[in-house]
Amino acid sequence: MHAEAGSAWLVLDADGVISRWDLARGTCTEVATASVPAEPGHRPWCGHELRRRLHAAASGRFAAVVNDFGRLGEVIDLRDGRVTMSLDNDGYYEETVPFSLAFACHRGRDVVIHRTDWNRLDVSDAATGDLLTARGPTSYRSGDPQPEHYLDYFHGALSVSPDGARVYDDGWFWHPVGIPAAWNLESWLDGNPWESEDGPTKTEFCDLESWNQAFTWVGSDHVAVYDTGDGDTQACTRVFDVGKAAPSNSGSTLRAAEVAVLHGPRGRFFSDGTALLSSSDDGLSRWNPITGECTATLPGFTPAYYHPATKELIEVSDSGLRRARLTGAAPG
């Protein structure tokens, strides 16, 4: 399930059928069928089973179906069901991360950001598949010279800021340690094709004992990241301000300013643009991302999906589906 333009949702079923579910009209219409292979022989890592995942462009025209913790996927034009791009992230520890993919809008057209190698992201035109980030090699074989912009980093789950300006990457570095990063999309597409490797807007957040944890943009400058901690530190949610990034101690890259540490939120994270929403076994709760104050709760409601346009949250369970809409003060 994935939020789409307007009040509609896109739904992917077990057979690969994509349907447009319009809650306002009470209709559910099949619009396309995905044909992404199942990748037999996959070995789960840390309990992460390979599973299909649906992504949707904000315009509602395009969708992507990918194998999270696998290597294959495709982009589909929902106007006619045509596959515009076949995706392959080239493997290599692909079982450690969800398939790196996110839609964005650049200069009026839908683009798709996708992993094409373990340490490389590219951007393509969603309608044509044309590559928009052509550049030299980012990997090399033993004995060959290392490329100038070589990046020793495994790209992970991606998220574009609400204003479309930045790309957040929940990837990891061979230690292993999670090192989320972000950079400017316009700089990447209009100026420096190496922006995602070592561009001047590249900003790191922190070192994490584990990645693939909850995170969300809170507005277009702040990111809330769940940190599991280690033997010496307590689990918490760390809030960073990308707009206040400053050079790190090494001076080689920027570091986002850490502005708050919260000890309540856990589970899945969402945001209405100003507050942090967390969905866990205890239910849904709303948090002030700076003060850490819990401002509202809805016990027993554990949504897995959020629609930013309608501010609706949906919980899916064996007993059915429940939904709630955010109001000005509390979930209701």
Quick summary of this structure?
It contains 2 helices and 27 strands.
Strand content: over 45%
In total, the number of strands is 27
Oligomerization state of this entry? single chain
End-to-end Cα distance: 21 Å
Q: Tell me, what's the shape?
A: globular
- Largest sheet, if any? 9 strands, mixed
Radius of gyration, taken over Cα atoms and rounded to an integer in Å: 19 Å
Helix fraction bin: under 10%
Low-confidence stretches: none
Mean pLDDT: 93
Structural class: mainly beta
Give me the strand/helix succession: EEEEEEEEEEEEEEEHHEEEEEEEEEEEE
- What is the helix tally? 2
Structure explained in plain terms:
- The mean pLDDT is 93.
- The relative contact order is 0.09.
- The chain has helices at residues 185-190, 195-198; strands spanning 2-3, 8-12, 17-22, 27-33, 51-56, 62-68, 72-77, 82-88, 101-106, 109-117, 120-125, 154-160, 166-173, 177-178, 181-184, 203-204, 215-218, 222-227, 236-247, 254-262, 268-271, 276-280, 283-287, 294-299, 305-307, 312-317, 320-325.
- With 332 residues, the chain is mostly beta strands.
- The longest helix is centred in the middle third of the chain and has 6 residues, at 185-190.
- The protein is globular and about 60 Å long.
- 3% of the residues lie in helices and 47% in strands.
Question: Could you give the topology of this structure?
Answer:
Elements: E1 2-3, E2 8-12, E3 17-22, E4 27-33, E5 51-56, E6 62-68, E7 72-77, E8 82-88, E9 101-106, E10 109-117, E11 120-125, E12 154-160, E13 166-173, E14 177-178, E15 181-184, H1 185-190, H2 195-198, E16 203-204, E17 215-218, E18 222-227, E19 236-247, E20 254-262, E21 268-271, E22 276-280, E23 283-287, E24 294-299, E25 305-307, E26 312-317, E27 320-325
Parallel strand pairs: 16-20
Antiparallel strand pairs: 1-2, 2-3, 3-4, 5-6, 6-7, 7-8, 9-10, 10-11, 12-13, 13-14, 13-15, 15-16, 17-18, 18-19, 19-20, 21-22, 22-23, 23-24, 25-26, 26-27
